[in-house]
Amino acid sequence: MSRGDNVMSYQSTRSAAAANSLEAVLTGIAPDGGLYIDPSIAARPFDWRKCLSLDELGMAEMLLGFLLPEFEDMGALVRRAYLGRFENDRLSPLVPCGDVHVLELFHGPTSAFKDVALSMLPQLITQARRQLGVPDNIVILTATSGDTGKAALEGFHDVAGTGIIVFYPDGGVSPVQRAQMVTQAGRNVCVCAVRGNFDDCQRGVKEAFAALRGGSARLSSANSINIGRLAPQLIYYFSAYVQLAASGAISVGDKVDFIVPTGNFGDILAGYYARLLGLPVGRLVCASNENNVLADFIRTGVYDARRPFIRTTSPSMDILVSSNLERLLFLASGGDCSAVSGWMEALRRDGVYSVDAGTLANIRAVFSAGFASEDDVRAAISRVWTESGYLCDPHTAVAFSVLAEYRRGAEYTGNKCVVLSTASPFKFPAAVLSAIGGNVTGDGFADMAALSRLSGRAAPENLASLRSLPVRHTDVINRADLTRYVSDILSNGGFDSI
Predict the structure, then answer these.
(1) Which domain holds residue 238?
(2) Under 8 Å CB-to-CB from 308, ≥6 apart: which residues?
(3) Count of structural domains within the chain
(4) Looking at the domain assignment, is residue 460 inside a domain?
(5) N or C: which terminal CB in the chain sees fewer CB atoms within 10 Å?
């Protein structure tokens, strides 16, 4: 699968700045602020049908070997990442729910979809560091809207030669999500709240990258701006298709539509990548919450972040600046770096940009979009529970709500539909409990127990046990202080060990 050790298989979305896959994973973001992308991804042959006879680990080895061709021993990396870390034999089981299927992505160590990617990323970064002969420590800077933070902390804690700093919006994650992060043990971890929203955290992290690049430690990212975070997410699209075919729900070659709740556009972009590799993906339905900047963009071609930021019961989607959309813009514009750079500069400067008609047409040929209000989310949780006995979290409920709208529209052609379920309902117990008729106490752990009693389902042990863990991280800063906070950690030995 390798294209040779010296082949620059990746480039920036904003220029011709090139890197091989090892360098792209290790640095996370290009020097010009763009995201690394393989411009030839759709042109290189990939026999997706071979996945039909593979288990998920085999699929992972095949896919990641193709997407990250300079990495050695990918099979060993995959086994170290996944074996024994998930609840089920499958990383992502597919379950029927009425006349649709739900792809459950929350059976990993932190009960969220990020586990599939963030179990793999530390292996990739460690391997890239070894192959490139990099002696410097690697420090992971990560902004999170709720799930990435804990999944990254779980993956990187106590990894030799690596430190990780996670920033989350103060008051902008669920109580359970916050507890997962602030109780994290590890001698190489720091967790810090930022006064503001996720976009403030993400902007601050990008500013820190720009200001501190070239210092005593190499910086990288665990967000999906890092291609090493994005690439493993393709695995579960292929897995879903194979499971559908194996069950007889589809015939091999039938197209499947995927309904994806998304805020930063990474999860749904992985589905687009799967489509480029030949998987029979029909339409990709972008499901937004009330922060519906993505849905508006897909419908109009105008990306306008100049709108009120709304805190919702699906906080992992409370995002107005969706970083991964930049990769789609590159592909949909035919690799026009100049156009992408201009759009990103307009977004930074003005908070808005408009794409040309051709780029929008290419996007709309594959993507549909809709959004769900908070009332819609509550109604979807209740409806799915009442009709199918399926308990879903608010993010998954966004997808169910948008699915109902999509099926009533002209873009739906009757394909089998798969809803991506991105988190355990027990990560958001108050919202789910209230929607199915329970009494909310305001205590996240009491609500978790009540939800378990009412639904007859056990909360994952990794969540239920949080109540007894000590709080280890209490820092809170302003966004303007984020770069200085990182600099102080790097210069003053803020990690116990790295």
Answers:
(1) 97-106+231-465
(2) none
(3) 1
(4) yes
(5) N
Provide φ and ψ at 358, rounded to 5°.
Answer: -65, -45
| Cα–Cα distance for residue pair 422/36, rounded to 1 Å | 25
Q: Is the dihedral of CA 348, 328, 129, 496 positive or negative?
A: positive
pLDDT (0 to 100) of residue 68: 97
Amino acid 465 reads: S
Give the number of other CB atoms < 10 A from CB of residue 397: 33
Residue at 85 is within a domain? no
Helices first, then strands: H and E counts in the chain: 21, 16
Q: Are 285 and 368 in contact (CB under 8 A)?
A: yes
Helix (H, G, I), strand (E, B), or coil: what is residue 33? Answer: coil
Sign of the torsion angle spanned by Cα atoms 120, 276, 249, 295: positive
Q: Could you report the per-residue pLDDT of 442-474, keeping only the tens digit for each? A: 899 999 999 999 999 999 999 999 999 999 999
Q: Are residues 368 and 298 in contact, defined by beta-carbon separation less than 8 angstroms?
A: yes
> Does any domain span residue 266?
yes
Bridge partners of residue 139, in order along the sequence: 163, 219
Closest C-alpha to 274, from 229, 324, 333, 231: 231
- Cβ atoms of 355 and 328 closer than 8 Å: no
CA 342 vs CA 8, 224, 352: distances in Å? 24, 22, 11
Smallest CA-to-CA distance from 190 within 213, 163, 211, 209 is with: 163
Q: What is the DSSP string of 350-415?
A: HSEEE--HHHHHHHHTTEEEEE--HHHHHHHHHHHHHHH-----HHHHHHHHHHHHHHTSTT--S-
Does 176 reside within a domain? no
Give the whole-angstrom CA distance, residue 430 versus residue 401.
19
User: Average pLDDT of 144-161?
Assistant: 90
Name residue 394's beta-bridge partners.
Answer: none
CATH at residue 281: 3.40.50.1100
Active site residues: 114
